[in-house]
């Protein structure tokens, strides 16, 4: 069963589309790539790839529009605007979308698995780190974690990093993280998978893994080698490889 809905988010100042596939199972939130929408993963055959898991009631798949990704990729407005939207998008997911998922699952405390590719991997990681009470795992495929290159002014000058970006970027705030949020995060797991083929940069995954490991957050980097490129066939294969590892035993 596919459900499409939307609502107005005051945080983002716009209508946001969300989609759910499946009726029962572990909630699996898959973020689109930078320019994608809530139905991108269906068009690129991800839903077909996990059809057996949906049919067996093992997962319910959710997605939403890539609001912040589009703003960053399109370099919309000044850099300060992009940083604000990135921060507010994460707030939308944590304070609006996750409660909606929990209502849809009839379980106010159910934990969500986050996943995504490219900037979607950034979102999966960022949401797990920011809301470790809501997310149990993050599957980050071909991740892009350093977003500063999207934050230049039209003149080419580097933008001043604002508190919005600091709070939205794990690379920025994790070194300073202390207390209960970090304690909870240390009970979670991050899987960083990347190829080394066309347009891949596995060094981003290794840098992120080093930071996570330094804070005591369980994680693993899987190197898929040079035959795997920054593209949907890679991500569909990765998803099939890792679903059984991330889901509870049958």
Q: State the total count of DSSP E strands.
A: 8
- What structural category arises from helix and sheet content? alpha/beta
Q: Which CATH architecture is right?
A: 3-Layer(aba) Sandwich
Shape: globular
Instruction: Name the CATH homologous superfamily.
Output: Alpha/Beta hydrolase fold, catalytic domain
State the order of secondary-structure elements, H for helix, E for strand: EEEHHHEHHEHEHHHEHEH
Give the domain tally. Answer: 1
- What is the class in the CATH system? Alpha Beta
CATH topology: Rossmann fold
Q: How many helices does DSSP assign?
A: 11
CA(first)-CA(last) distance = 22 Å
Identify the strand order in the major beta sheet: 1-2-4-3-5-6-7-8
Biggest sheet details:
8 strands, mixed
Radius of gyration (CA) equals 17 Å
Mean pLDDT across residues: 96
The parts where pLDDT drops under 50 for at least 5 residues are none
Q: Level of helix content?
A: 40-55%
Strand content: 15-25%
Question: Would you mind describing this structure in some detail?
Answer:
It is a single chain. Helix content is 41%, strand content 21%. The protein is an alpha/beta fold and 250 residues long. The protein has a single domain, classed as 3-Layer(aba) Sandwich (Rossmann fold). It has an 8-stranded mixed beta sheet, with helices on both faces. Helix 4 (67-73) packs antiparallel against helix 5.
Which SSEs are present, and which pair or pack?
Elements: E1 2-9, E2 14-21, E3 26-31, H1 40-43, H2 46-49, H3 51-55, E4 59-64, H4 67-73, H5 79-104, E5 112-117, H6 119-130, E6 135-141, H7 163-168, H8 170-173, H9 180-185, E7 189-194, H10 202-214, E8 219-223, H11 232-246
Parallel strand pairs: 3-4, 3-5, 5-6, 6-7, 7-8
Antiparallel strand pairs: 1-2, 2-4
């Amino acid at each position: 069963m596919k459900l499409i809905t939307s609502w107005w988010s005051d945080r983002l100042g716009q209508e946001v589309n969300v989609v759910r596939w499946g009726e029962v199972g572990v909630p699996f939130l898959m973020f689109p790539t930078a320019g994608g929408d809530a139905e991108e993963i269906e068009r690129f055959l991800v839903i077909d790839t996990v059809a057996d898991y949906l049919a067996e009631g093992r997962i319910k798949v959710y997605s939403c529009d890539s609001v912040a990704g589009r703003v960053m990729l399109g370099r919309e407005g000044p850099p300060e605007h992009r940083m604000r939207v990135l921060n507010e998008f994460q707030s939308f997911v944590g304070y609006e979308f996750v409660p909606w998922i929990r209502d849809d699952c009839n379980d106010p405390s159910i934990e969500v698995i986050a996943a995504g590719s490219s900037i979607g991997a950034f979102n999966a990681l960022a949401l797990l780190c920011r809301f470790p009470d809501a997310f149990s795992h993050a599957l980050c495929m071909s991740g892009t974690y350093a977003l500063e290159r999207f934050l230049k002014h039209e003149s080419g000058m580097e933008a001043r990093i604002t508190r919005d970006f600091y709070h939205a970027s794990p690379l920025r705030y994790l070194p300073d993280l202390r207390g209960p949020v970090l304690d909870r995060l240390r009970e979670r797991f991050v899987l960083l998978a990347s190829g080394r083929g066309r347009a891949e940069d596995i060094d981003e995954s290794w840098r992120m893994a080093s930071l996570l490991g330094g804070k005591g957050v369980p994680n693993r980097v899987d190197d898929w080698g040079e035959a795997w490129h920054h593209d949907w066939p890679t991500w569909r294969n990765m998803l099939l490889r890792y679903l059984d590892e991330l889901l509870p035993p049958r």
